[in-house]
Automatic annotation (TrEMBL):
It comes from Pseudogymnoascus verrucosus. Residues 51-217 form the Glycosyl hydrolases family 2 sugar binding domain. SUPFAM superfamilies: (Trans)glycosidases, beta-Galactosidase/glucuronidase domain, Galactose-binding domain-like. It is an enzyme of class 3 (hydrolase). Residues 1-18 form the signal peptide. This is Beta-glucuronidase. The lineage of its organism: Eukaryota, Fungi, Dikarya, Ascomycota, Pezizomycotina. Pfam families: Glyco_hydro_2 (PF00703), Glyco_hydro_2_C (PF02836), Glyco_hydro_2_N (PF02837). Residues 220-313 form the Glycoside hydrolase family 2 immunoglobulin-like beta-sandwich domain.
Length: 629
């Protein structure tokens, strides 16, 4: 098998931004916007970390245009907010729930005194949708984008054995230059600001993932990229390692199997490691090697070590087949959401493990990170559990025609070049963070964009090219919207796999499944005839009220959800090019208020608290017995 091309992560970073000056800030320090962070913090013999999760002081900005900066001193507030969690549903206060603009989190942090002589970083795993980190009165990091990590080197600002004040400001405002897009509306009657957005899930905000203080040696490993392959019984890890500036010592590699035995070794920052009698990472049967990279001095003393869980596997698209390790793979599973009661998008280990248990129970082998990157903990867990992932950027809502039919999406005052630049950065950050996960087999760079809009080609062609330049080892896709047919869609030829979201029988042909079956079949046959590519149905489903039953199988009932899914499966089984099915959605989830949504989207086959509807049992029966070529 031909060796896969090495990942080539482009270091295209926006120019640094000078910090605004005021009486409480030092203007000489520059802060880089959206700098790519280092590897996920971990504890080893050379590294240490302090988890900063817990209750933080919390306050909302006093006005929409406030220039006051309470992070230059202790927050005067009686509110405390848990981290990680979205703040919206925590407090019994509609003003906080509906707040538009900045909020502030603050706590005191002690730097362990044993860290003297090390390099220190503060890292936030996410801040929805814009974050600024302050150490005492100093701005040290600024990031736009709600679902990827950012960090700051604070070595010159803090001292081992001493305490500092840490503040993180978070802004939930969406514009036409952010992902996802949105706009702020101001009431002519009351002056109240509301955030309008174009995606169908609630705009939860805050620090929904962990915050860390961590240390590394002065000479340390900054980044690792691995691309795997195999030939016969020999596995191959092509690797590239970036070390900190000023590192003069040698890089050594050891590959350790799950029993703890070292099975291969190498040296140098770039190279290929061969693994005899390799055990492949397989869907449903994960096997992970520990790729251990170390910096050692001339006396063989280890200065730094980073351990990377690595699965050996290949991904190839050939005609209408999606191949993992040379074997056809058929996706079964869901589009999901990071969404639970009270926590919002806050990461919760108990829910994560339980969700994976339910995926296993129902016979699912995969999910899509709709519609944003999920936590790194979930990606790592998918690696360990053998669950396949379609990894998606936060490019959702790039389709104004969904809310107002006939509306144009792409234009100078709409989704424009600045949006495209933000989109490109989101791709870079997602690929940079998740490039080494064996579970990630395909990148999705957008969900339901207006791909039939006249401006779609100019917008997406450079982004598809960027994605391919960053990673040639995985296929790329996007989720095609219901109304962009194989005739009107302008961009599907740029991608490797056709991912289609379809709602025949729900949004059209509502309640008329015989008509919906004809429409769905005709639609899929059109895509098959035009493209010789695999088709994954990445969304299909019907809103269903748990406990609503009817002998007539009417819409909104559990019986109708089962009947509709059954019809879709009958059609899928008749289409040879089908490579998978992801039901929308795994579980009910919260959305914005509106007459079309009563306490959220009810398309889950599980309720929001993970109780199965009848459809869950029907899917279990299908997926645990499904055999695909």
């Amino acid at each position: 098998m031909k060796l896969l091309a090495r990942l080539s992560l482009l270091a295209i970073i926006p120019s640094s931004l000078a910090v605004p000056t005021n009486d409480n800030q030092i203007a000489s320090r520059d802060v880089v916007l959206n700098a790519l962070p280092m590897l996920k913090p971990q504890r080893s013999l050379s590294r240490d970390l302090v988890n900063l999760d817990g209750l933080w002081k919390f306050s909302v900005a006093t006005s929409a245009n406030s220039t006051a900066q309470p992070w230059t001193g202790p927050l005067v507030t009686d509110l405390e907010c848990p981290v990680p969690a979205s703040y919206n549903d925590i407090f019994v206060d509609r003003a906080i729930h509906d707040h538009v603009g900045w909020v502030y989190y603050q706590r005191d942090v002690i730097v362990p005194k044993g860290w003297s002589g090390e390099q220190y970083f503060v890292r936030a795993e996410s801040a929805t949708h814009e974050g600024q980190i302050y150490v005492n009165d100093r701005l040290v990091a600024h990031h736009v984008g709600g679902y990827t990590p950012f960090e700051a080197d604070v070595t010159d600002l803090v001292t081992a054995g001493q305490q500092f004040r840490l503040t993180i400001a978070v802004n939930n405002i969406l514009t036409f230059e952010t992902l996802p897009p949105g706009k702020v509306m101001t009431s002519a009657l009351t002056g109240k600001r509301t955030q309008k957005y174009y995606h169908d899930f609630y705009n939860y905000a805050g620090l929904a993932r962990s915050v860390w203080l961590y240390s590394v040696p002065k000479q340390h490993i900054q980044d690792i990229t691995v691309v795997t392959d195999y030939k016969g019984n020999t596995g191959m890890i092509n690797y590239n390692i970036t070390v900190a500036k000023g590192t003069t010592r040698k890089v050594q590699i050891a590959v350790i199997d799950e029993s703890g035995k070292t099975v291969a070794e190498g040296s140098g920052a770039t190279g290929t490691i061969n693994i005899p009698s390799v055990k492949l990472w397989q869907p449903g049967a994960a096997y992970l090697y520990n790729f251990r990279a170390s910096i050692v001095d001339s006396s063989k003393k280890t200065l730094d070590t980073y351990n990377l869980a690595t699965g050996i596997r290949t991904v190839v698209v050939k005609n209408t087949q999606f191949l993992i390790n040379g074997k056809p793979f058929y996706f079964t599973g869901f589009g999901k959401h990071e969404d639970t009661n009270v926590r919002g998008k806050g990461h919760d280990q108990a829910y994560m493990v339980h969700d994976f248990q339910l995926l296993n129970w129902i016979g699912a082998n995969s999910f899509r990170t709709s519609h944003y990157p999920y936590t790194e903990e979930m990606m790592e867990y998918a690696d360990r559990r053998g669950i396949v992932v379609i990894d998606e950027t936060p490019a959702v809502g790039l389709n104004f025609g969904l809310g107002t039919p006939g509306s144009v999406t792409f234009g100078p005052d709409l989704i424009n070049n600045k949006t495209q630049a933000a989109h490109a950065q989101a791709i870079r950050e997602l690929f940079h963070r998740d490039k080494n996960h064996a579970s990630v087999v395909m990148w999705s760079i957008a969900n339901e964009p207006a791909s039939d809009d006249k401006g779609a080609r100019a917008y997406f062609e450079p982004l598809a090219a960027l994605a391919r330049s960053l990673d040639s080892s995985r296929p790329i896709t996007f989720a095609n919207v219901f109304f962009a047919t194989h005739v009107t869609d302008k961009i599907s030829d740029l991608f490797d796999v056709l991912c289609l979201n379809r709602y025949y029988g729900w949004y059209t042909e509502t309640g008329e499944l015989a008509d919906a079956e004809v429409a769905l079949t005709t639609d899929l046959q059109g895509w098959v005839k035009k493209y010789n590519k695999p088709i994954v149905m990445t969304e299909y489903g019907a809103d269903t009220v748990s406990g609503l039953h009817t002998v007539l199988g009417l819409p909104w009932s559990e019986e109708y959800q089962v009947a509709m899914l059954t019809m879709y499966h009958r059609v899928f089984d008749s289409i040879k090019a089908m490579a998978g099915e992801h039901v929308w959605n795994f579980a009910d989830f919260q959305t914005s208020m509106g007459t079309g949504r009563v306490d959220g989207n009810k398309k889950g086959v599980f309720t929001r608290d993970r109780r199965p509807k009848a459809a869950a049992h029907a899917l279990k029966e299908r997926w645990t017995n499904l055999k695909k070529k």
